[in-house]
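Q: what sequence does this backbone want?
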């Protein structure tokens, strides 16, 4: 065996963690202490054809590095790295001198993609570039990326190719930390048989499977009859799971191979300069990095799913299992998001359908607030429109053009009688039965799933038939989940809530059954969606869940709807039809019908003070209507009849004037009277 050298790549490989932005002072102090530690080779950073900044260890000419390493220490070899897929042009590379770095490490790739996207051989290009580096007078270290992608025959041929250049060193590079000691030593033994005796053999590995030190030990103890180089970094700083720790490697070599590295200087760098980086840019061995390693997958996927999104390990594993072999190699955030969406869509095949009409601003805000999260969750959103113009369609198409392929526009051209949305809602279910779950929601609500999605998902793992959802702010701030095992308590607690368009999520099986078996007739008219779940539960033993959380918020761009305040429509809806559909429900609910019929919700009292004023101002409240519904009014609300009469006695123009001036003195007088 020849000599064993330790190469520290903190300032180069560690830069993947912090974008190489170590800072001028830290770069100088790291180089100084690495020199004092007596490591054999110090890798200063990358040479790339990009803008140079003093605070980064990325350089576009060797003179920039020369300033940082002067005066050079005789016991050190100073190195920089170049990636040959997008290298700094050789003409920009100054010749080696006694003041410049001594070694250039060149990352060579097996293949690359040309401008047309076709995969082509890249080794010959790497060979030519490496030859140019030698001609510039530098020691050459050949770093073939991802040794595991080569078959034995391909690896042997590659070693033979670069052996012709007589480089200073040739490396076994385990880029993703996927290899075992036995696998690395197989490559090392193959290389040892081919390489000229004077060429050193190096090992650069990552710690995704916590084997970096074991591999280094096997590498050093293999009895290979040539010089060896082990790569490491302070505190193991590096992309993903990081690298072999320099202090740990140095201590091992001191104890077993009579080396004399000054370990305290490495520990000082770690405690003073590298540990603070770890506070904001994490690296190190984790289960997700192990998962990528055993799948031969780029560890950047683990970094994105674990460190950036904080996904559970089981979710990360599920996503990694669906990544194609091709996409495992080259990572991008776009690909990571694509596979996350595919995985989420398999977990919960849900569509949100928004029936709307002439509310383009409301739809614009709703999509702006939700579309990105819904895309990541694999949830489609359909704007189900019956507007008089194409402005809503234009809004939706803008989001589609922005790349949100989970957004769809559909125009409803079916029946509308000027009063009830039932036909439109029923058709929305019929058209989306290809999804597992359908959530029909009015455009006045904005689903806010980002903070509750994991809990939300747990509910659907048991495949409920119906899920009732509601916001915690509408329920005294409560957050809870409940399953109903009998229909009467479900009716008592949820009849009023179910009338809110957006509080019911149906499985496609339940939606299909209800559309087919509970037609629109006098027992369901105007409240079909709100009452059919109670017919269904009374008829069949189904699974119904209630979920109260931060599930939605109000749409601040929503239009205030005055429809129900006109021409007695509120009385028709919440007196005549409300009374009719409730009393038409099965007899199992009879005990609770009188209680449920009184509409009292957090944000909806059809006959409260403000509502009565609005009705009066819009011509929807007069003495005739009060007389017409005098027998039903006491059944549906707690508002005394004299309060209806007081509101009806106010001139319409004054009522309209009061509604828009809620702080005026006369309004306060009215408020006091109405609360008596």
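A:
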């Amino acid at each position: 065996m020849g000599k064993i050298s330790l190469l520290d790549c903190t300032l180069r490989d560690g830069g993947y963690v912090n974008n190489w932005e170590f800072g001028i002072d830290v770069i100088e102090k790291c180089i100084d202490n690495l020199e004092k530690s007596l490591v054999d080779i110090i890798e200063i950073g990358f040479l790339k054809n990009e803008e140079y900044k003093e605070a980064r260890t990325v350089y576009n000419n060797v003179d920039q590095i020369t300033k940082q390493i002067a005066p050079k220490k005789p016991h050190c070899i100073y190195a920089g790295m170049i990636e040959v897929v997008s290298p700094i042009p050789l003409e920009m590379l100054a010749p080696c001198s006694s003041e410049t770095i001594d070694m250039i490490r060149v990352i060579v790739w097996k293949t690359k993609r040309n401008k047309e996207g076709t995969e082509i051989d890249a080794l010959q290009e790497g060979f030519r570039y490496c030859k140019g580096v030698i001609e510039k007078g530098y020691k050459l270290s050949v770093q073939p990326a991802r040794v595991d992608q080569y078959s034995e025959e391909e690896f042997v041929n590659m070693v033979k190719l670069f052996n012709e250049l007589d480089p200073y060193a040739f490396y076994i590079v385990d880029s993703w930390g996927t290899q075992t000691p036995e696998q690395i030593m197989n490559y090392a033994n193959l290389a040892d048989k081919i390489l000229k005796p004077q060429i050193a053999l190096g090992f650069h590995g990552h710690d995704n499977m916590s084997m970096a030190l074991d591999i280094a030990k096997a590498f050093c103890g293999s009895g290979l009859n040539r010089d060896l180089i082990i790569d490491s970094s302070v505190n193991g700083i590096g992309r993903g799971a990081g690298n072999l720790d320099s202090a740990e490697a140095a201590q091992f070599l001191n104890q077993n191979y009579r080396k004399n590295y000054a370990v305290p200087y490495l520990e000082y760098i770690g405690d003073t300069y590298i540990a603070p980086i770890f506070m904001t840019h994490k690296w190190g061995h984790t289960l997700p990095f192990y998962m990528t390693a055993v799948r031969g997958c780029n560890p950047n996927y683990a970094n994105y799913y674990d460190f950036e999104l904080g996904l559970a390990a089981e979710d990360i594993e599920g996503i990694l299992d669906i990544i194609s072999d091709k996409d495992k190699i080259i990572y991008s955030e776009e690909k990571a998001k694509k596979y996350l969406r595919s995985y989420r869509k398999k977990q919960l095949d849900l569509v949100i359908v928004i029936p709307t009409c002439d509310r383009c601003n409301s739809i614009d805000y709703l999509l702006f607030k939700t579309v990105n999260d819904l895309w990541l969750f694999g949830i489609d959103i359909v704007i189900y429109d019956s507007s008089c113009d194409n402005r809503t369609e234009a809004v939706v198409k803008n989001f589609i053009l922005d790349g949100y392929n989970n957004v769809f526009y559909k125009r409803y051209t079916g029946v509308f009688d000027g009063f009830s949305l039932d036909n439109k809602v029923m058709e929305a279910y019929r058209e989306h039965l290809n999804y597992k779950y359908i959530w029909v929601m009015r455009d006045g609500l904005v689903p806010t799933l980002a903070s509750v999605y994991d809990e939300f998902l747990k509910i659907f793992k048991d495949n409920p038939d119906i899920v009732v959802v509601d916001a915690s702010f509408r329920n005294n701030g409560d957050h809870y989940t409940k399953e109903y095992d009998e229909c009467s308590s479900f009716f008592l607690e949820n009849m009023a809530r179910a009338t809110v368009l957006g509080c019911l999520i149906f499985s496609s099986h339940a939606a299909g059954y209800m559309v087919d078996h509970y037609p629109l007739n006098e027992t369901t008219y105007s409240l079909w969606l709100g009452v059919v779940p109670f017919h269904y539960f009374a008829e069949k033993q189904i699974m119904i869940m209630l979920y109260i959380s931060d599930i939605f918020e109000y749409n601040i761009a929503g239009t205030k709807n005055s429809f129900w305040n006109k021409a007695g429509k509120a009385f028709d809806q919440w007196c005549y039809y409300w009374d009719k559909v409730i009393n038409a429900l099965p007899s199992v609910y009879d005990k609770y019908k009188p209680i449920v019929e009184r509409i009292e919700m957090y944000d909806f009292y059809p006959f409260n003070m403000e509502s009565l004023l609005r009705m009066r101002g819009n011509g929807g409240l007069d003495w005739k209507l009060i007389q017409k519904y005098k027998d039903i009014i006491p059944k549906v609300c707690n508002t005394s009849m004299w309060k209806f009469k007081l509101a009806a006695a106010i001139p319409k123009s004054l009522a309209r004037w009061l509604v828009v001036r809620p702080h005026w003195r006369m309004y306060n007088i009215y408020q006091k009277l109405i609360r008596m």
